[in-house]
Amino acid sequence: MKEQFLAFVKKEWFHIWRDKKTLFILFGLPIVQIFIFGFALTNEIKNSRIAIVDLSRDASSQSLIQRIEASRYFDIEEQLSGADQADAAFKRGLIKLVVVIPENFGENIKHQNKVQVQIIADASDPNTGTTLTNYIQAITGDFQNDINEGKKLPYTIIPEIRMLYNPQLKGAYNFVPGVMAMVLMLVCTLMTSIAIVREKETGTMEVLLVSPLQPVLVILAKSTPYLLLSAINIASILLLSVFVLGLPITGSIVLLVLLSLLFTVTSLSLGMLISSITASQQTAMLISLMGLFLPTLMLSGFMFPIENMPPPLQFMSNLVPAKWYYYIVKAVMIKGVGISIIWKEVVVLLVMTIAYLTLSIKKYNIRLATT
Asked: Which of 301, 346, 344, 340 is nearest to 320 (CA)?
């Protein structure tokens, strides 16, 4: 009995070592998960790009700026000449916070013992906006303590906080664009991922392969019904966002709908590619749900700031279509920007769509050639 048991253990041991997929699940997944959860999933925000408006340009204001720049939480992206330029800088997506140092900063501290510093934050992501303002207040507090050292009458720096785009700090402003990106991505990809592979499983693939339709027309014909269904899905999501969750559409509704349709086409194309390279509906659904859910959730910028992640994960985030759509929805829906600001994101989605469709058609052609 003992020898038989050990023989079975030995047999199973060699079976595991010969199976590369099992080895990857055993050793690869834990390493990947530790890497992602350890480095990417943190609520601490580092290296956030901010702008400075220094209207004083004296030794005290320069000292405060140096202290902000030395912090690991901020990278000073640019110096603005006035607070009225903050809105345009936020809409370009270059910065997340502006610090406005008033005129006669040093003189007012010495002679009036108090001065106001304006902090303007992009609150379209309320958690990030609140966290960054807290960091700045802590830095100005430390600066105030240092200059008060040995003083009988303390100096006071009063932070004046202004939250742009979402002054009430509603969570829906961040939640709705993220959920829109995730829902459209997963639902659209899942729908088309079983379109071609279903033909393989039911044995009707040969009928498609010998049909007079060009492969590109077959791919488009299979995608069109799902595109129409997705259009209804987009309308439902937008109506719920506006009338139930109270999230206004500040920018152009037409632009938002058109770009949502573009993202839908991108997701449908990715689903069609998955369907072309898989052999069963079960595998296609597993890849669509499990393979896309975690990257969409973690690497789109919806849950965790991308700038906090290590460079390899930041690079990988560029491959996630939901990242670009999430930025587009926030920019159009909340900040009210136009196509001139978000054209790069639109181009990325167009390139992804063309790449997915080309690979799907190529894979279809290969199958046609081998039949």
From this structure: 301
At residue 122, φ and ψ (nearest 5 deg) are -80, 105
Beta strands 97-101; 114-122: pairing state? antiparallel
Cβ–Cβ under 8 Å, residues 262 and 346: yes
The pLDDT tens digits of the residues spanning 56-84 come to 888 888 999 999 999 888 889 888 888 88
Q: Which two tokens stand for residue 272?
A: 């069609």
Range in 34-48, 257-271, 292-306, 337-351 the model is least confident about: 34-48
- Spell out the SS3 assignment of the chain: CHHHHHHHHHHHHHHHHHCHHHHHHHHHHHHHHHHHHHHCCCCCCCCEEEEEEECCCCHHHHHHHHHHHHCCCEEEEEECCCHHHHHHHHHCCCCCEEEEECCCHHHHHHHHCEEEEEEEEECCCHHHHHHHHHHHHHHHHHHHHHHCCCCCCCCEEEEEEEEECCCCCCCHHHHHHHHHHHHHHHHHHHHHHCHHHHHHHHCCHHHHHCCCCCHHHHHHHHHHHHHHHHHHHHHHHHHHHHHCCCCCCCCCHHHHHHHHHHHHHHHHHHHHHHHHHCCCHHHHHHHHHHHHHHHHHHHCCCCCCHHHCCHHHHHHHCCCHHHHHHHHHHHHHHHCCCHHHHHHHHHHHHHHHHHHHHHHHHHHHHHHHHC
Q: Which two tokens stand for residue 179?
A: 């959920």
Q: Token digits for 337?
A: 């920007």
Decide: pTM greater than 0.85.
Answer: no
Burial of 351 (0-12, 13-18, 19+ CB in 10 A): exposed
Q: What is the pLDDT of residues 291-312, one digit of tens each?
A: 788 788 888 888 888 877 788 8
pLDDT of residue 25: 66
